[in-house]
Amino acid sequence: MQIIFNSVFAIYSLCSHNYTLEREIIIEFLKKYIYILKKIGGSMKHKLFTGTILITLFTLFSQIPGFDDAIRNSRESNQTTWGDVNRMQGAIDRQNQIDKQNAQINTQKVKEYYYSLSEYPQTISDGWHKVIALNNNDVCDERKVYVSNNRVMKYINRVGYEIQLSSYPKIMDGKTSVQLLGPDGKVFDFVELYFLDAINSQ
Predict the structure, then answer these.
(1) Domain spans, the chain
(2) Which residues pair with 154 in a beta bridge?
(3) Rounded Cα–Cα distance for residues 4 and 169 (Å)
(4) Which of 70, 190, 174 is nearest to 130 (CA)?
(5) pLDDT digits (tens, 9 = 90+) for 137-162
(6) pTM as predicted
(7) Residues ≥6 apart with Cβ < 8 Å to 178
(8) 45-50 long-range contacts, Cβ below 8 Å, gap at least 24?
(9) Which residue has the higher pLDDT, 85 or 5?
(10) What is the CA angle 137-139-142, rounded to 5?
(11) Coil, helix or strand at residue 150
């Protein structure tokens, strides 16, 4: 019973003696206080004892000059930080949308150029080749692939890492399609490869 009385008295002291402390700061603390009590294991007596210590410490600290200003400044700093993060994320989303639109425009140009040609190579020589890779959505960029026996054996992404393929497709009329595998072995993208450099150099 004594521990319950101490806990109630501590909450009363916090609310009644902190006239200068912003009400919302006290409310915010009490919300966190209740959350902590729910997370603390053990008996109710142990929880109330721990909670009483927390409230007592908070009450003592609140008497220090400038305590409420420090809390307010901390909250404003956090709000500013999250505001910057949200603005940055918005800028990234807008840039991604622009990149996607550009990829779709370039995809159309690549296909129009490819189908405007009258002749295509029947085979592609062994070795490394530059190709245009596109997925008809948000990718239309230059990539490197390794060809052997007129099949794509290796695919290098834009940052220089090799991406595993689900199969080694045959190249026909200077183009082919490949399925790209992630680290887990699952297909994460399907891209068409256009050997425009090889076509133009024939």
Answers:
(1) 2-64, 119-200
(2) 146
(3) 75
(4) 174
(5) 999 999 999 999 999 999 999 889 99
(6) 0.58
(7) 152, 155, 165, 166, 167, 169, 190, 191, 193
(8) 45/3, 48/3, 48/4, 48/6, 48/7, 49/3, 49/7
(9) 85
(10) 150
(11) coil
